[in-house]
Design brief:
two-stranded antiparallel sheet; Arc Repressor Mutant, subunit A; 2 domains; Four Helix Bundle (Hemerythrin (Met), subunit A); mainly alpha
Length: about 250
């Protein structure tokens, strides 16, 4: 059973830049609902389903996940404690904007950790992984062409982590997910420039080619270039926002 998320300003629908919808599965009752609500919301923040400044209410989260307010509140409290959300009232949280200092720190860590995961993952990747990544990239390209950027962000995580998971280093993956939890919402600011310039498309194509060639170093370099390209665009976006706030 799946439930479409509504489009109210306090809803938890992943709005996307063009208002694309992403369905959220109703949680199964037999599991610990607080944990499942947390994982569901965490995954959507990591994938950039919520843009910075987005307001989320306990009620809207509970309705979307098909749970009571208690597990929904537990999930939001945990995410707020991790810095992924900020409370603006007793029952409302906001997805925070990324500061320049945070962007620089997160990017430095991503280059080191995701570079390691990519290189180790490329060495251990199954032979059919390039074919799977090609399918993911085709979906990304379709989303870019039709300006369905929410879908692009959703598939981008699949692309990256399909390689990272092959490194077989669970602690490393957990740390990388924590970084994405903080920077994921800001990926909205990559578009539409990334769609026009096709920075990510080129980097992903190099990753696929490197995996086919068995060149783990080239795969690492391609992922690092992807991170650097994103950093330059996000840095520009933060500067524009700061200038507007000062004027």
């Amino acid at each position: 059973m799946r439930r479409d998320l509504d489009v109210r300003s306090d809803s938890v629908e992943p709005a996307g830049i063009q208002g694309a919808k992403v369905d959220l599965p109703t949680l199964k009752k037999h599991a610990r609902l607080g944990d499942m609500a947390y994982e569901a919301m965490k995954e959507r923040l990591i994938r950039g389903a919520f843009e910075p400044g987005r307001k989320l209410t306990v009620r809207a989260v509970a309705e979307a996940l098909g749970v009571s307010s208690t597990p929904a509140r537990d999930a939001l409290n945990r995410l707020a404690a991790e810095g992924a959300l900020v409370y603006s009232g007793p029952k409302t949280v906001i997805v925070p904007y990324l500061t320049m200092e945070a962007l620089q720190e997160v990017t430095a860590m991503r280059l080191a950790l995701e570079g390691l995961a990519a290189e180790r993952g490329a060495v251990r990747a199954p032979k059919d992984l390039p074919d799977l990544l090609t399918e993911y990239q085709a979906k990304i390209n379709e989303g870019l062409a039709s300006r369905r950027y929410a879908e692009v962000l959703w598939m981008n995580k699949e692309f990256h982590f399909s390689v990272y998971k092959c490194c077989n280093m669970p602690y490393l993956l957990t740390t990388i997910e924590t970084l994405w939890l903080r920077i994921g919402p800001s990926f909205h600011d990559l578009y539409p420039e990334f769609a026009i310039q096709k920075y990510g498309v080129h980097n992903h194509e190099v990753v696929i080619e490197s995996l086919r060639d068995g060149d783990s170093g080239a795969a690492r370099a391609a992922f690092e270039n992807d991170i650097r390209d994103g950093y330059r665009r996000l840095k520009q976006s933060i500067r524009v926002r700061e200038e507007r706030s000062e004027s």
